[in-house]
Amino acid sequence: MEKQYETIREHVASVLGQSGSHGMDHVERVTRLCRQIGEEEGADMAILIPAALLHDIARPAEKAHGIPHEEEGARIAEQYLGSIGYDRTRIPAIAGAIRTHRFRSKERPATREAKILSDADKLDAMGASGIARTFMRAAEHGGDIDDAIAHFHDKLLKLGGLMYTVSGRKIAGRRHAFLVSFLEAIEDEKKGLR
What we know:
This protein has helices spanning about 1-15, 25-40, 45-55, 60-65, 70-85, 90-100, 110-125, 125-140, 145-160, 165-190. By secondary structure, the chain is an all-alpha fold. It has a single domain (about 1-190), classed as Hypothetical protein af1432 (Orthogonal Bundle). Helix 3 crosses helix 6, helix 7 packs parallel to helix 10 (about 165-190) and helix 9 packs antiparallel against helix 10.
């Protein structure tokens, strides 16, 4: 399995590039979180790890054409995994996890693996990595510090209450506390209080 995971990882890296708020570095962190949570929650790793690696494969298509990346990503994953001879019995569950991973997904995750992927993706938007990604995202969209701070209020501060797994909730508690502390500090600095 690990050899197939590496093949998938290399393919995703060739599509996404190494960095950016949704680059390969994000995918690697989400995959590590999935491994950690998946082991604690008794997940089928042959579903979870490919789903984690492929969850943002359609980000470039979304940027170029406005196609929701979770829907297009599920389609791409099914096609790609079939082309490399991946276990066909697991491909529908992998696609389902990708389809429902997003904060804004229309569908909610139904399987253990889909819930773990959703949690891991949200967790990477929290804590220190989440803060860094938020400022990267603001810059990628031509925004500034105020735009990044608005994103904290619009999305990041809500994520801790949206975890599906016990393991995800534990990690989210720590990361949410860090977000709140950072946000208080930056807002105080903007007011000249620090």
